[in-house]
Amino acid sequence: MGSLVLCHDRHSTHPYEISRIHCKIFTIEELCYYLCNNLYLIDYTIMNEQLCTWLEEELGMGELAGMLRDEIRLHGSVEKFVLTILKYSRIYREPEMIRIQNVLERLKNQKDIERQKYKGDNLLESGEIEEAIIVYQAILNQEKDETVDNKFYGRIYAGLGAAYGRLFLYEESARMYDRAYQICDDKVLLKPYLYASYKYMSLEEYHILLTKHEEYIEVNAQMRQEMQDLKAEIPKEIGEEMLEKWKRQYRRSHI
């Protein structure tokens, strides 16, 4: 949130409570911070008269309160409601507002559980690995949602496999990818599964694993060929330099 610009000094006497997470907020900055950090979980419960009254009476933002009441009266979207607050506050710069608007557009027609997965995927992509794992595990620990197909959960396991792999937890990674493959029956998942298995197993154990399915042998051969092709494309000096760089990064991450 490096683009946050504090530009208001009004502090409410009585806080507004976000009922969904029982979080009390005292300023417009805190409200905007909550909205921007929970875009994936925002729903129509945020559109209510109590919030409008709080903005008007506690923060003196009668104009904003009126705009929000119009959104409620006209049955506007929650996305527009949130953007109205953020734009009016002028706390975030234009590039950040564009990002927020794009995220909200993507989430508009998604189910709550799909929003949670999208949050996990974005955390994983941005390098917040532990946070992504927490989100994925929370989805799996919930009661199963029958409105999504079974492969949805397979993709959750695949996300966990990727996250554990980035943390060098290869046994856990292989276990997640295997579960994902069993659910999705997608050969694309065999490559990361076999790679993670190779990283934590002994050679004997890995060769035994390969004999269990013809597809494993086929995919393993493809992986070996791809590695040989990649090595052939990289000059030896550069390859050794890259290897040393990766080793240093690995050691720093485990200090």
Describe the structure in your own words:
By secondary structure, this protein is mostly helical. It is built from 13 helices and two strands, in the order ββααααααααααααα. It has a two-stranded antiparallel ribbon. A hairpin with a 4-residue loop joins strand 1 and strand 2. Helix 1 packs across helix 4 and helix 6 runs parallel beside helix 8. The longest helix is centred in the C-terminal third of the chain and has 20 residues. It is elongated, with a radius of gyration of 24 Å. The chain starts with 15 loop residues before the first strand and ends with a helix.
What is the overall number of helices? 13
Topology order in helix (H) and strand (E) letters:
EEHHHHHHHHHHHHH
Distance between the termini: 27 Å
Number of DSSP strand runs? 2
* Average pLDDT figure: 86
> Can you tell me the overall shape?
elongated
Q: Helical content, roughly?
A: 55-70%
Query: Unreliable stretches, pLDDT < 50, 5 or more residues?
Result: 1-6
Using only C-alpha atoms, the radius of gyration works out to: 24 Å
